[in-house]
Amino acid sequence: MSSVSTNLNFFEAKKGIFSWIFSVDHKRIALLYLYSLITFFLVGVTLGLLMRYELLNPGKDLVEAKTYNQIFTLHGVIMIFLFIIPSIPAVFGNFFLPIMLGTDDVSFPRLNLLSWWVYVVGALMALSTLVFGDGPADTGWTFYAPYSVKTGTNVTMSVLAAFVLGFSSILTGLNFIVTIHRLRAPGMTFLKMPLFAWSLYATSWIQLLATPIVGITLLMIAAERLLGVGLFDPSIGGDPILYQHLFWIYSHPAVYIMALPAFGVISEMLPTFSQRTIFGYKAIAFSSLAIAFVGYFIWGHHMFTSGMSGTARFIFSILTFLVAIPTAIKVFNWVATLYKGSINVQPPLLYTLAFIFQFMIGGFTGLVLGALATDIHLHDTYFVVGHFHYVMFGGTGFAFFGALHYWYPKIWGRMYNIKVANVAFTIFFIGFNMLYFPMLIAGLMGMPRRYYDYLPEFHLPNMISTYGSWVLATGLIIMLSNLVAGFFGKKPKVGRNPWNGITLEWQTLSPPPVQNFDRMPVLPQNGPYDFDHKPVIEE
Amino acid sequence: MENTNHHNQHDEVHISSYRDHWRTLLTLLLLTLVTIVISVFGANLKALSVATALLIATVKVVVVAYYFMHLKYDKKLYTWLVLLVAILFAAFTILTATEYFNR
Predict the structure, then answer these.
(1) Which domain range does residue B86 map to?
(2) What is the CATH number of domain A20-533?
(3) Lower CB density within 10 Å: C or N end of chain B?
C-alpha cells in the first residue's frame, strides 16, 4: 500500500457542500444516496400513514376518493423507484463493495456520481407532479393501460420520472459488474468473494438487462398519451395485455433487484453474529444467480386474471414455483448457520432474524398467489398488499435497517445506544406485524385492494392495521433518533472491528480512510468466512 | 493502490486497424441501404417484412459488437454474456407469443 499518503478518513479529507455533491469517492456517494433515500422514505411513510388513517373507518376520514388514489400511487412510486430499488445497492453496495473486494473505488467513479445526479433529477421529476399540472398520477404505481393513457392526472411526468430513474439503476449495475470482474484483490477468486458481492453481482445483471424494457414501455405510454399511437388502448387498436407483459417483464425481475441485495446483507450478518463460517457458501452464491435467471421468466403470474391465455397461465405458474427452490436453499442455509454458532444477540442480528421470519411469510403467501386456483380468489385483494409488504418491507426494509445498524460503526466510527436500538427494534417489529398481518386476513375475507371505502365487515382488520401503522412509526422515529444521536453523541469512537467480523471492511479504520485501507488487507485462508483462520489485525 | 490495477497489467491491448474500421462502416452502410431498398422500393414480403428488418438489424448489431466494440478480440466470457442477452430476448418473445397465439 505504498501509494497511500494519508490516513485521513473520508469525512475529514475535504470540507464543504461541493466536496460532497461533486465527490467521486464511492463512500461519499453512498452517503449522498443514504440521505436522499431516507428523505424519500420518510415522505413515502407519511403518505402510507395518511392512507392508513383514511382506512381507519368505513367512509371518508380524511381525504376524497381521487386524492386517496393519488396518495397510494405516489406512495408506491416513491417507495419502489426512489427507495427500495436503489436502497441496499446504492448505499451499502456503493460503500462496501470496493472495500470488501480490497480495492480503492468502483471501476467508474464519475459514472457513479452521475448515477446519483440522475437519481436526484428523476426524484425531483416524480415529486414535481405534486405541484404541476393536474396533480400526481392516480393509476397505481403499475401505470396500467388503458387507464393510464386516458386519465387527466400527471401520468406523463410520472412515467418519465421512472424512465430517468431507470438510468440511475442501469449505471449502478454496470459499475458493479465491471468492478467485480476487474478490481478484486489479488487472490480473491469469484469463490472467495463475500456473499454480499455475489448478491450485488446477480442484482446488477438484472438492473442492466431488465431496466431498459420498462424504460421503453413507459416511453410507449408517453407516446400514446402525447401522439395517440395505438399501442395499448384497444379503442385505437392497442392491446392492454401487451402493456402488462412489457411492464412485468421488468417489474417482476425488479422484485429481485429489491430482494437479492437483502439476501446478501443477511448472509454477511449471520456469520458475524454466529461467529462461524456460513453454511453452504456455494449454494447461497449460486442460488443468487439462479434466482436472478429464473426470475426473468415468471412475470406472467401477475396477469393470471387479466385475460391471458390458459396455456400461458399454466406455464407461468409452474415457472413461479421453480423460483421458490433457490430461495428456500438460502433460508435453509441461513438457519443452519445459526446452528451451534456462538450467537451474539445484537441489534443487527435481531433485524436478521425478523427478516427470515417475515420473508418466510412473504414467500409462502407468494406461493399461494402463484397457484392458479387460489390466485383467482385472492388476486387484487388485500392479501396481495400484505404479501408484497411482507416481502419488500418485512424482508428488504428490515435488511436495510439491519445493515444500517451493522455497518453504522464502520461508516461513522461511533456506536449508537444498543439498548435503545433493541427497544426501537421491538416496537418496529410489533408495529410491522400489526400493520400488515391483518391485511392478509382482510384479503382472505375478500376485501379488494386500492379501494377508498369498504364494507363494515372489514372494519376490524383495518382498524388493527391502522393502529399498527402508528406503532411502526413510533419504532421508526426512535430508531432513527437513536442513530442520529449516536453520531452527535459523546460515545467513544469504536475500533476497526466492533462486531468481530471477518470480511475486509473490518480490517480497516472506522471510518475508512479516503483510499479505503491504511495497510494491505489480508484475505482469510479458506474463503471469506473462515473464522478458524481469521487474520489477526492490530488496532 | 497496487492491487487495483493488478488485472489491467496482464491484459493484452488490441488496437484495430483503419482497414477494419472502414470495412465495418461499409458493411453497416450497405445493410442500411438494403433495408431502405426493401422498404421503399416495395419488395412484397408481407408477413416477413418485420422479420426481414429485424434480421438485418441483428446482423448490424453483431457487426458493431464484434468489431467496433471489440468482442472479437476480448475474452470468450464476454461473448457468452452478450449471448445471454440474446437468449433472454428470445425467451421473452417466445413466452409472450405463446400467450398471444393461445388466447
Answers:
(1) 74-103
(2) 1.20.210.10
(3) C
